[in-house]
Amino acid sequence: MPQHKKYKTILADPPWDVQQRGNYGAVHHYDLMSLDKIKALPIKELVEDNAHCWLWVTNGTLRLGFEVLEAWGFTPRSVFTWVKPRYTLGVYLRNATEHMLFGTRGKAPVRFNGQGTWGFFPLQEHSHKPEEQFAIIERVSPGPYLELFARRKQPGWDVWGNEVRHPWLSCAGLTGHQKDNERGRP
After folding, report:
1. Strands, sheet with 47-57, edge to edge from the N-terminal-most edge strand
2. What sign for the dihedral angle of Cα 89, 75, 143, 112?
3. What pTM value is reported for the model?
4. Quick check: is 88 in a domain?
5. In which band, very low, low, confident or very high, does the pLDDT at 6 lie, cut at 50, 70 and 90?
6. 144 in a structural domain
7. Over the stretch 62-85, which tens digit does the pLDDT of each residue have?
8. Residue span of the structural domain in which 93 resides
9. Of 12, 96, 119, 176, which shows the fewest CB atoms inside 10 Å?
10. Where do the H-state alpha helices sit in 106-160?
């Protein structure tokens, strides 16, 4: 296998196929990916031995997010909560939060340990995470940086995702479009 760049920090916002197929679910906005396929992504091949991972989860995927972090070789360390300015959908309670799970692999201390565990940021279009996430991650975690399931290029970051105009990343398990449902999310 050819050598490829390794990252010290990964940000991922997977298209969870959990509670997303209803009338207002994410399935109407983008293609979904099963939990097994998310867990099977070759993240260990993309990161250095000492690395950080920031994983977006909803309230409905919070427990599963810890499983994903561990499957990718990270130890869960903390939760950053995005507090939204209004209620959104919810099966049992109306949600007004999403979360980034923070995990480490190996010996990966933070660059700044004064970062709080929540932020109040505006909503944008469906599933668009706050732009402030990049400043938070860059303050806490070292580069080089990779965003998986990205929608657009962020300065100073490498990206991969089927909504990015020219995703460059190519490695085992992250090439082409592997069908996971009828519309084919990689």
Report:
1. 118-120, 75-83, 97-105, 47-57, 7-12, 145-148, 157-160
2. positive
3. 0.80
4. yes
5. very high
6. yes
7. 999 999 999 999 999 999 998 987
8. 7-160
9. 176
10. 132-140
DSSP symbols for 77-106: EEEEEEE-SS----SSS---EEEEEEEEES
Please enumerate in sequence order all residues whose Cβ is within 8 A of that of 84, keeping only pairs 6 or more positions apart, or say none.
95, 96, 97, 98, 121, 123
Q: Is residue 122 part of a domain?
A: yes
DSSP lists the bridge partners of residue 57 as 99
CATH code for position 134? 3.40.50.150
Find all residues with CB under 8 Å of 101, minimum gap 6, and list them: 53, 54, 55, 57, 65, 66, 69, 76, 78, 79
Residue 181 lies in a domain: no
Amino acid at 166: H
Q: Residues 126-142: pLDDT tens digits?
A: 667 888 999 999 999 99
